[in-house]
Specification:
- The protein has about 625 residues and is α+β, with helices and mostly antiparallel strands.
- Helices cover about 35% and strands about 20% of the residues.
- It is built from 15 helices and 21 strands.
- Strands 3, 14, 15, 16, 17, 18, 19, 20 and 21 form a nine-stranded antiparallel β-sheet that branches. It has a seven-stranded antiparallel β-sheet with strand order 2-6-7-8-13-10-11, with no helix packed on it.
- A hairpin with a 3-residue loop joins strand 4 and strand 5.
- Helix 1 packs antiparallel against helix 3, helix 2 packs across helix 4 and helix 3 runs parallel beside helix 6.
- The two termini are about 50 Å apart.
- The protein binds zinc ion (ZN).
């Protein structure tokens, strides 16, 4: 673990001006954030707060964690406010903040499901009722809102609630870990924002109590507590302790298990706690768990959690394509976890996986126009899988909105002496390095072009390190300062240590040659199949680009691949094309000798996976079979 963690730069200190991300972020601002406000308004989420404010009872609408949708919306909207003036949005945010504040009980408690439906059952079903999960999202929204506006209203609501939680839980009070993690990472954020050590101690308590409290067996001990919950919340085997990462104390866990979003939030909080308290043992457990996930349980897209049964991890190398679950929220959680692991190590493997996840498993979660969403993300489909406008369980869309709106937090990190460029997004960042204000400008062609140039402008000549991530997918990277070559190794940071005067230009070339990829032989569903990548982008084949049915196409493992940028297609994408084979003449026989196989030569065109299902409905494949006999 590093002695001094690498903190992300604040949203307000980074200005993004990027050809790829600007349209995504503009759609997020203009369409998604606005659209989601309507959904939380019409869907009853805000009405729940109004009813509590007005002293009413009953009439709760939505899922048990409905409050969190309002908080995630507030967090996303706060990042939008942090990156520029928007008076209409500010007014809307203020109204929601006032509404949330007005619904808070005098003792700091706040959860509209309990307040409206089971007011005498606070904290009686820690495992299923999501009070602490919602509290966590409230805290995250409050920190973002305070940073963006300087207004303390929501932060005061969050601290009052956190104080209440601190009174209720702990060795002298309720000993329990929540069924859905989120409070852990949120309390660390609150600690950093307020300097109040007890929030960090409480976060550590929630991490360490997990896997030790088996006395909350609610189905048998408290049947009355689940009476008001939807059936899906207390049936089947989904709720074994592994589902919510309570099968063992966190620091003893050997593999990423259970509900994948829960796991990502827990491990994000655990890394924060380990980093803030210097807990090497806990941090070591996080590194082990990451290796298990990254090396055995992650799709080529960065997606995680391969089955819809319990929305969870299954076993090593079990990565089916046509039933892939890979929830959008889990990808987002992975980006959060990776950012935190990086903060305490400076290791490039974390932003490498974050990059893969951002451009593929996360971005695929919404349509190009920002109004339709995937909750789960298949890697193969036959024309019957499409995005929806919204979900009854609407966790993913506002989660995506808050990540896209707060993208700035994922681009740079600093410990005050060095600036790390973790993702290549054209932007201007202002920070202080070795005591001197410094402006860094990055111009990047990602994800279509690997040419990057940077200028570094300190207020006065100052010595500090500028560290650039050299992507692991890159072959023959070139890096230079004022034309002087500098060593660059894929999968590592290139650290440029010098006195910077403001006259230097750093240039990087990360060639994006198209490449064919194979999966580990133990991934049964990918045996004999090829996937295509270029730069950070994973590709797929769609019906819309082919006359031959997709299930007949075979991709040879050799032959030239070519890339073409198509500004007119899917919002502007680089496509890949190359030779393909089609067993067109196979008719009649069910089986044939391999020696007798015969293929017609044809061509394939691949489009970025994130952009699929934005044209006429059809089949899609990420992993395409190679021919048996080329
Ligand atoms: Zn989700």
């Amino acid at each position: 673990m590093r002695e001094r963690p690498l903190r992300p730069l604040d949203v307000s200190t980074v200005e993004v001006h990027d050809d790829f991300w600007d349209p995504v972020r503009e759609t997020n601002r203009e369409e998604t954030v606005a659209h989601q406000y309507e959904r939380i308004d019409e869907g009853g989420c805000l009405e729940n707060f109004r009813r509590v404010r007005d002293g009413e009872s009953g009439g709760f609408r939505g899922m048990v964690f409905e409050d969190s949708d309002a908080y995630k919306w507030l967090e996303a909207a706060s990042y939008v406010l942090a990156s520029g003036e928007d008076p209409a949005l500010r007014e809307r945010v203020d109204r929601v903040v006032d509404l949330v504040a007005a619904a808070q009980a005098d003792d700091g408690y706040l959860n509209t499901f309990i307040q409206l439906r089971q007011p005498d059952r606070r904290w009686t079903n820690i495992r299923m009722v999501h009070e602490l999960y919602c509290a966590g999202h409230l805290i995250e929204a409050a920190v973002a809102h305070h940073r963006a506006t300087g207004d303390r209203t929501l932060l005061d609501v969050a601290t009052a609630f956190a104080d209440h939680v601190d009174d209720v839980f702990g060795p002298d009070g309720l000993e329990a870990a929540p069924g859905h993690e989120e409070i852990e990472l949120a309390l660390v954020r609150l600690y950093r924002e307020t300097g109040e050590r007890r929030y960090l101690d409480l976060a550590r308590y929630f991490v360490d109590v997990r896997g030790r409290n088996d006395r909350f067996d609610w189905e048998t001990d408290h049947p009355e507590d689940i009476a008001g919950l939807p059936d899906t919340w207390h049936t089947g085997t989904d709720w074994d302790p592994t589902y919510y990462q309570s099968q063992a104390p966190v620091r003893e866990q050997a593999a990423v298990e259970g509900h994948s979003v829960r796991a990502m939030y827990l491990f994000s909080g655990a890394v924060d706690v380990a980093g803030e308290t210097g807990d090497e043992d806990l941090f070591g457990a996080m590194e082990r768990l990451w290796e298990n996930m990254a090396e055995r349980r992650t799709y080529v897209t960065g997606g995680i959690g391969s089955t819809e049964h319990g929305e969870r991890f299954t076993e090593d190398y079990d990565l089916p394509n046509d039933t892939a679950y890979a929830e959008t929220c889990a990808a987002i959680g992975s980006v959060f976890w990776n950012r935190r692991l990086f903060a305490h190590t400076g290791d490039a493997r974390y932003p490498d996986l974050a990059e893969r996840t951002l451009y593929n498993a996360m971005l695929v979660g919404q349509s190009l126009d920002g109004t339709e969403y995937f909750y789960d993300n298949r890697l193969a489909a036959d024309g019957d899988v499409h995005r929806s406008g919204w979900f009854e369980c609407a966790c993913c869309p506002p989660n995506l909105a808050r990540l896209v709106a707060g993208l700035e937090r994922h681009l740079y990190a600093t410990d005050g002496e060095a600036l790390y460029v973790t993702q290549y997004v054209s932007s201007t960042a202002e920070t202080i390095l070795a005591g001197t204000p410094v402006t860094v400008d990055v111009e990047s062609g990602f994800p279509w072009d690997g040419e990057v140039s940077l200028t570094v402008d300190p207020d006065e000549p100052t010595a500090f390190d500028l560290a650039l991530r050299v992507p692991e997918w890159c072959v023959d990277p070139e890096l230079a300062v004022d034309g002087e070559p500098v060593d660059a190794t894929p999968g590592e940071f290139a650290v440029l240590s010098r006195e910077w005067t403001g006259d230097e230009t750093v240039t990087a070339a990360f060639p994006m040659a198209p490449r064919r990829v194979a999966a580990h032989p133990a991934v049964e569903d990918d045996v004999g199949r090829v996937a295509l990548e270029r730069g950070p982008v994973v590709y797929c084949l769609e019906d819309a680009d082919h006359d031959v049915p997709l299930d007949r196409l075979r991709l040879p493992t050799d032959g030239d691949l070519s890339a073409e940028h198509r500004p007119d297609l899917l919002g502007g994408v680089t496509t890949l094309s190359g030779p393909a084979l089609d067993p067109a003449g196979w008719d009649g026989d069910l089986y044939r000798a391999v020696d007798d196989l015969d293929y017609d030569e044809t061509k394939f065109t691949a489009v970025p996976y994130y952009a699929w299902d934005n044209r006429e409905p059809g089949a899609m494949r990420v992993w395409v079979p190679a021919p048996l006999d080329e």
